[in-house]
Write a structure and sequence with these properties.
Length: 384
């Protein structure tokens, strides 16, 4: 009882503080951001639409029109008259205006970062700064769907020297973020933690950031995905055998579990399926494994994001809860010319109340589908 009372008082105090702080620190609206004359977009061609997906082997028209906001990445060139700061939350503040907008909860998070900036150590930072993902948490799926392609776009924009000397400022630094930055040619000395600091930008510095904090269940457009593949696949030791069938597991995850007993595992292994746990292998090994997969099967989750590394024509089977079926990986598969199949629901069911609910799999139907996909691959191989 004492715990709940303390928690209630803490939340009430936090809300009062946020309301008070909003009087002197407010997020910029999209219109405000556009009017700032020291902002310049680094790309104006990031929008796309999607209207057709291949669902369960049938070409099906879905009511999906997806638009990834154009000009989402900006470069701010700091001048002597601007008071630009990177907050402990990872957000960017110009005087008393927060540049990064987003969902209401994320705005509150950045306002809290603004308040924390008065108690944290202040440090000066100069040169090229990349700070394009202020976030309370960062999952692997979010990273591969959006942040990684955007980082690769920034890398393509900068000269090699600028990239090698840039500072990467993040308030969260999961291991996969550090590993991917290393694969992109960065070293750990370039990656800076903002959570315990408030960084003051020196005049003439330039900072890259995204206007929105997060876009739920969206995938970067094709041109950005291609840049990611160009930078990361060419450098890996990939033997293009394109033979394996991967079942992507979600071991050690408390949500969206499936009832997969040893007997069913044995049945699936007889079909030539390999069980793949992304958390136990390096990023290089993940890229190589998915680049060589003919068929990828898995429940909706971060591990499916690795289909970014699959070859065109790969069969992707995503398993959903009937009430929760985000379309982000369907969009990715569609853009990269893969054959996409869904079990449990068509992509588009977005009841967030079922986001963590366990999933019941029709194993008999799945096995039938796998056999069908294997036959189609064998027929195509024999023709070629």
């Amino acid at each position: 009882m004492k715990y709940f009372v303390q928690r209630y008082i803490k939340e009430k105090a936090k809300n009062i503080l946020l309301k008070a702080s909003s009087l002197f620190c407010t997020p910029l609206s999209r219109d405000d951001t556009r009017r700032l004359d020291f902002l310049e977009p680094i790309s104006k061609t990031n929008s796309f639409e999607l209207s057709c997906l291949s669902i369960a082997g049938i070409s099906t028209k879905l009511p999906i029109k997806v638009s990834y906001p154009s000009s989402i990445l900006f470069r701010v060139r700091n001048s002597a008259t601007q008071n630009l700061r990177i907050l402990p939350s990872g957000g960017i503040c110009s005087d008393d205006k927060i540049l990064c907008t987003g969902f209401k909860g994320q705005q509150s998070y950045n306002i809290m970062g603004y308040l924390q900036s008065f108690t944290k150590r202040r440090r000066s930072i100069s040169g090229t700064i990349i700070c394009n993902w202020p976030q309370q948490f960062l999952t692997y799926g979010d990273f591969v769907l959006q942040l990684l392609p955007e980082l690769c776009l920034i890398k393509a924009t900068l000269s090699p020297g600028e990239w090698l000397n840039a500072n990467f400022v993040f308030n969260k630094q999961p291991k996969f973020l550090v590993d991917y930055l290393k694969l992109l040619g960065c070293n750990e000395g370039q990656i800076i933690d903002s959570s315990n600091n408030c960084f003051i930008l020196a005049p003439e510095s330039q900072i890259y950031f995204r206007e929105k904090d997060r876009m739920w269940f969206l995938c970067a457009p094709l041109e950005l995905l291609k840049i990611s593949r160009k930078f990361l696949m060419a450098k890996q030791d990939i033997v293009h055998q394109h033979e394996s069938i991967l079942f992507v597991e979600r071991l050690g995850v408390y949500r969206r579990a499936i009832g997969l007993d040893e007997n069913m595992r044995s049945n699936l292994r007889e079909l030539g399926i390999s069980f793949f746990d992304p958390t136990n292998v390096s990023i290089k090994e993940q890229i190589a494994a998915f680049a060589n997969a003919q068929i990828v099967i898995g429940i909706h989750g971060a591990g499916i994001a690795n289909i970014l590394w699959c070859q065109p024509g790969t069969k992707v089977v995503e398993i959903f809860h009937p009430k929760f079926a985000p379309w982000c990986y369907a969009i990715m598969a569609n853009q990269l010319n893969m054959d996409y199949y869904s079990l449990g629901s068509n992509p588009g069911s977005m009841d967030i109340n079922f986001r963590e609910t366990d999933v019941t799999v029709d194993w008999n139907y799945l096995i039938k589908l796998i056999k069908q996909l294997k036959r189609s691959i064998d027929q195509k191989t024999s023709i070629n």
